[in-house]
TrEMBL record:
A GO molecular-function descriptor: ADP binding
Organism (species): Lactuca saligna (Willowleaf lettuce)
The protein's name in its UniProt record: NB-ARC domain-containing protein
Biased composition (Acidic residues): 435-444
Keyword Transit peptide applies: no
Amino acid sequence: MELASDVLCQCDCELVLMIFEYLMCRHEAKCIEVIVDTVLERLHQDVSNLNISNVNGNLIGIEARKQGLISAFELGFDGVCMVGIWGVGGGGKTTLASSVYDDISSNFDSCCFIKNVREGSCNKDGLERLQEKILCGVLKQEQVHVTRVEEGKHMIRLRLCHKKVLIVLDDVDHLDQLEALAGSGNWFGEGSRIIITTRDQHLLVAHRVNVIHNICLLNDDEATNLFRKHAPRNGRPIEDYELLSKVVVYYAGGLPLALRILSSFLCDKEMNEWRSALARLKEIPYANILEVLKISFDGLTKVEKELFLDIARFFGRGFKIERAMLILDACGFHPLRGIKVLVQKALITITEDGEFDMHDLVQELAHYIVRGEHPKNPEKHSRIWKKEDVLKIYAMDATMADDSDMLLPETNEMDYYNSVTRLDCGTSHGYDQTADSDDEDEDGDTRLNPVPKEAEKNDRIDREILKMLEKGKNKVEMEVVDQMETMEDRIVNRMKGFLHERIDRLEDKMVERMDMLENRMMKMEGIVVKRMERLTNKTVEMEGGVVQRIERLTNKMVERMDMLENRVGDVDK
């Protein structure tokens, strides 16, 4: 009753106006009907919001994430905004989208939440049925029939272009789904908001989504609270409960799905059953969790699948991407595009330091896929990384040898050593020549030394394996050294011969050039001498001519002086 009173108070202004309008027209019955409908609608909305608030209040860590996403919606903005939420499977994308949907749905004329788009589109006429769901949900009609995808696009665009709608498309995995259900912002009215959840960031980029939001996994405190909520202590010993809770939280790595599944599995178990179950997780991961994560893997191409398995197993977290690129490129993977796809699928990440990183359960997914249907038969695995599996394979093959005193022919020793499929010798997960036998890698896998110290010396097969591995290692080292020395000798000899040949040729050419230069100098000297002689002769001739001309000039001057003196004497007389 209190809630109804509050609703009536909130509706006073609107109701008064409606009552006045209908009473003026003397439509008392219509007036009563409108008043009842208005109050019931407001009452239903407030009750729904109250229930939603109670539900969302029980979601651990949702408030901060929700507020951050709602702020990106810009609800005051009149344009159409598409927001994408992407991340690893089981990370809480649907939960976040649902919580935001419940909080802001009252701001829109109509709302529609389409779940499991990926699964729905796989059915016969799947996209048409999804289009029908949108039209029915937004238009509040019981039935809408769509026969073709193009027809559905036209109907959505035509009938929703003037409506302010809120639509959630959950678990989208292909671009044609977005093009069929929310092809463009102009399909919807001003102020509409479209929320898309996906595991593939590339879809959001390709569809030109306005805002892309990366899902944030739970921190340790949030993960612990979520686990304790679903698997309370209920009288269990506090120390054991606290310790094993931390183990579960560490294993889940902040993944809400993993925490919910594991807590539901353990909630009714005794503490000794907890220990047994947790001890088995590393050996046989919980399939329900990995099957959810495997959906992203199934969407990869064959080459991308191989690339993911190699990165997850042989490189792993902390491995420099530049070095991995060189190795993968040399193996013919052309990894640049593939690594980009794996990042977009949220299967791996690249740190600021340029190193690979991935969720623990994603790495477990790779192990799960490699083991396949034969977890206890490593000889059937596509990749071998554990020391005990390598020893087991060698032991199995050793029993098939004809000669009981020699497991493997000496000549085929290294060929056999290389026969182990994808046996990695260049990373921290492969044969480590410097590590102690008790060292373990970050996944708990013991690294294999050239000579495993823990092998039983009284076991003949193990002794032969030790000899084989030691000989194999030594042979590899000797072959590498021999090859390097041979290569060095060849290079030096070839360089010496090349240099001697070039020097001889250079000397011959220099002698030829010197002879030619000497001949030219002699010719030049002869020419210069001849020209000097000619110049000397001409100079002598010129000197003789000059003397003669000076003598003639002197004689003429004497004659002129005599004539001048005679004339002066005549004048005086």
